[in-house]
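Appendix B.2, paired examples.
Example (i):
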Amino acid sequence: MFDHVGIQAADVDAAVRFYTGVLAPIGVVEAMRFPTDDGPVVGLAGSDGEPGFWLSPNVGGGPAREDHLAFAAGSRDEVDAVHAAAVAAGVEVLHEPREWPEYHPGYYAVFLRDLDGHNVEVVTHQ
């Protein structure tokens, strides 16, 4: 549905470490990096290699607001592996992996809090 999504981070390098570490089980890696006067702008990619998720500096340092980002997983095992990576990294888990029948049968997801307060979901519909 989206060509790409971008969010701002207080510390882009820390955010890159968070996302590439916690989302490694679903293949998220750093794909591109551009220096700017305000700090790096970094594109992360999944298994297709295309940078579809971008992190940029929070220029001006204004208050962050919570965004919701849902990343696709290929299986429940991948969702569980993301949860395990998050727990190992000391990440706040908002909702442990489970099926969410209120959304639809087979909706299986974990919800995490990133370093800038965003609600990060990893979901499979299988």
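Example (ii):
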Amino acid sequence: MAILGLDVGEKRIGVALADGPLAIPLTVIDRAGEGADLERVLALAQEHGAERIVVGLPRSMDGSIGRQAERVLAFSKGLSQHTDIPVDTWDERLSTVAAERLLLDTGMKRGKRKEKRDAMAATIILQAYLDRISK
């Protein structure tokens, strides 16, 4: 079952894909407005035969829902309203930090890291989801 993972930020949406037990970075979408963003995500889901979409929910460290998490919930709701594909949220605290660390450890230059970070964060989110559902 193919699953699309998303790290929804203010400027970009990182996208990862899993068609089995491992998630891989897919692409980064530059935000262009809610409607265009939803269309691009749904086009990727269709292109890759996704049967589920997992959206990282950026909770605060204390577990509460802040302003960015509210935006992500609204985006997730918009996705749900435009597709029959199930859309789940997944706690993504510190996924961007982990992605940055991972890319830094590979020796990647700063400009390239910025380019790849959001897709890597989506990969970390999706892999955590996959690990949880496989138990």
